[in-house]
Specification:
2 copies of one chain form a homodimer.
Chain A: H1 5-8, H2 13-55, H3 68-157, H4 160-247, H5 253-264, H6 294-297
């Protein structure tokens, strides 16, 4: 059943004024709510973004890029940054598509509402002035009738002059009666137009305005949910990528362990048995600090740190280890 | 191809120490990252929750509950609160499942790592002391050989006493030789055990430890993404509910407009035409302020506010409007 405020609420001007004002308050409250929501999203996005930045390696260290767990963390941070981007976009969409639009619309709505209630008040003033006109004509007619009646009484008893005065009064009453009838017709015409044309038209506009306001709220709520919903598949993809990065670590465990070997392997073999040096057989040889390997080192002397045994000049693990390598022993 | 740090990195004790220390640093850095992420989620959840609370009507006004756009907003706020709950749960899961677990695990790992490197250092000390023993035996043997040789030279030239002394020196050299051989055998045995048993066993433990650390990182990254992924379907349902709430407004537009009528309708009809009062026909009647409706009002006088016409005692719109209702006119 269609609804017509002009018919149903013809006498509820003040309440409609309050109701539409409450509607605008609601619109402003909802706009403020979305604005605050957007601010929260933006602040969240900023925090997430700076978290991602804070933990992202300043510049990819060569070493780090060789370890899948470092790469997985870097991938997680990149995805997190993408989440931040999405949240920023959400905040931006909420602001531009809803907050700005609703603010602009609310401004228009206030102007429109003001116009309708001004029209209403003008119509009210018109019918009130028409009523005053009618009242005044009616009183004049009543007074003139009274005076004509009084003159009639006098003329019945006294002279011709009085009779002439009585006729004049009768004429005046007749004139007042015509005025009163005119005012009455005018008022009834005005009143009919007021309640059956002006008020319905104005109220219909108010009703249309209210319908549009509700549609806008509905649209804003839908857009808001839609804007947020658009974020989900992207976030879901980011999480998939994070999961993939995490999952990529374990199957490469063996190669990860090999990376450590590649990075650190010296390429040397562990030392073999120390040989016996028979000083009794070469007793004439002078005592020296040289050891059994001196003949291989061609006289170079290095401090032998037995264990750990670190060499800067690493040999790649694929390079065959020399069977006769530099192996410096000195005590 | 399986990897064996004990074989490949036998001389990289210090580098392995650095590498495993870096691994623990990474673990602590990742834990801190997840902690900060959880804090961000918690702060976001709190903001969202308080936003929802702030805009939720303090107590449901009877009027508000009759308007679907108010109900839709209330539904949106309830769903938003549910989103906050989800984010709080995410923060909680990140903290309990990842931050706490990894913190505990890192503590264990540090203890374990300390043990392995202590074992390594102990083995190193042992082989070094074995080497010193060998060097000392070797030097004594060399010295005794030299002395025996010198005594030999003397005895070749001089007396029997010297010859006896020379034999003694020879015997001493022979003893030293035996000691040296024993030390040499002991050292070679120690060295073989060091590089082929002790170091591989310790390094294997370090390698196992590193494997477990990487597995834990992988697991933590997976759990983190999983915890976040679990939020998505719930958030998606919340958004669906928000969308439904928004969508529910428009199809009820007509009934919404009727609600306004229900709330405000007075139930009265607009006033009809004002009738003519013929004072000329009843001129003897005293002048009064009464109007054409006085006979209906039984003398009650009320101020007639033409328009707007607000009555507190509303008549329900379904109640038939009385054809002869109180309609007070006084001027």
């Amino acid at each position: 059943m269609s609804c017509n405020w002009g018919t149903e609420l013809w006498d509820q001007f003040d309440n409609l004024e309050k109701h539409t004002s409450w509607g605008i308050d609601f619109l402003e409250r909802y706009t403020k709510f979305v604005k605050e929501r957007a601010d929260i999203e933006l602040s969240y996005a900023k925090q997430i973004r700076s978290l991602s930045k804070k933990y992202h390696p300043k510049r990819s260290r060569e070493d780090e890029s060789r370890f899948t767990w470092c790469l997985a963390f870097a991938a997680t941070l990149r995805q997190l940054n993408e989440v931040a981007v999405q949240r920023e976009e959400l905040a931006d969409n909420l602001n531009t598509q809803i907050v700005c639009e609703l603010t602009r619309y609310t401004h228009e709505l206030k102007t429109e509402r003001k116009t309708h209630f001004q029209d209403g008040r003008r119509a009210q003033q018109h019918i009130e002035s028409s009523w005053k006109q009618l009242e005044s004509s009616k009183r004049r007619f009543e007074r003139d009738c009274k005076e004509a009646e009084r003159a009639q009484h006098v003329s019945d008893r006294i002279d011709l002059d009085s009779k002439t005065d009585g006729e004049k009064k009768q004429q005046a009453a007749e004139e007042s009666r015509k005025d009163y009838v005119t005012s009455l017709n005018q008022f009834n015409q005005d009143q009919h137009q007021h309640y059956h044309t002006l008020v319905p038209v104005i109220y219909q506009r108010i009703q249309d305005m209210e319908e549009r306001r509700i549609e806008r709220i509905c649209e804003a709520m839908r857009s808001s949910a839609e804007a947020e919903r658009k974020v989900l598949p992207v976030v879901s993809r980011c999480l998939d990528a994070m999961m993939d990065a995490a999952e990529s670590i374990q199957p490469r465990m063996v190669s990860l362990l090999w990376v450590v070997v590649e990075v650190y392997k010296s390429g040397f073999d562990p030392p073999g048995d120390v040989e016996f040096e028979d000083y009794s057989a070469t007793m004439r040889r002078s005592i020296s600090e040289s050891s059994y390997l001196d003949n291989r080192t061609e006289g170079r002397r290095h401090s032998r740190k037995l264990w750990p045994f670190i060499r800067k000049n690493k040999v790649h693990r694929d390079t065959p280890v020399c069977s006769v390598h530099s192996f410096f022993v000195s005590v």
